[in-house]
Amino acid sequence: YVNETLQFNVFKKNWFVWSTPDGEDYENIHMEVTVINNDTDSTTAFGLMCNKSAGGDFYYLAVTAAGQYAIAKAAEGEIDLFLTNNDEWGDSDLVPVNASSYRVGADCGNGTLTLYVDGQEVASVVDSSYSSGQVAVLAWSGEEATNTNVSFDDFLMTELP
């Protein structure tokens, strides 16, 4: 913890890390977190994970400082499937480029995954493969990342209606 935030420094390229608040399983939830950009590489992804099973299956909703986003499904032993943009990262004007911070939000429930940035809906997909599990904040260093450094603050989780 640095300055009352959870700071991630990743020193390996193309590395995916996360932190869970507890060992509980949740379903039908909305989450939000402020992600502070500590001069991280623009290809660094950061965001939220939901419905993580003990076996390693989960969804993640992430953005980059380059203005890209993805909603993805991870399954143990398989390559991640991006559920948005024909299995690719997408660009969005709603994701500010190299902002000092981002308020990233996610809805995970009722068979729908929705990604928000600074209170605006960026993308939404329908997938009901996983319906409950652990939640986490995440960072993913880019393939050419030399500086992956983000901090998480003001995590909030509520139940979806």
How is the topology of this model organized?
Layout: E1 6-10, E2 16-19, E3 29-37, E4 45-52, E5 58-64, E6 68-74, E7 81-82, E8 90-91, E9 101-109, E10 112-117, E11 120-126, E12 134-140, E13 148-159
Antiparallel strand pairs: 1-13, 2-12, 3-9, 3-13, 4-5, 4-12, 5-6, 6-7, 6-8, 9-10, 10-11
Stretches where pLDDT falls below 50 for ≥5 residues? none
**What class, by secondary structure content?**
mainly beta
Largest β-sheet summary: 7 strands, antiparallel
Supply Rg.
14 Å
General description of the model:
The chain is an all-beta fold and 161 residues long. Helices cover 0% and strands 53% of the residues. The chain is built from no helices and 13 strands. Strands 2, 4, 5, 6, 7, 8 and 12 form a seven-stranded antiparallel β-sheet that branches. Strands 1-13-3-9-10-11 form a six-stranded antiparallel β-sheet, with no helix packed on it. β5 and β6 form a beta hairpin. The radius of gyration is 14 Å and the shape is globular. The N and C termini lie far apart (33 Å).
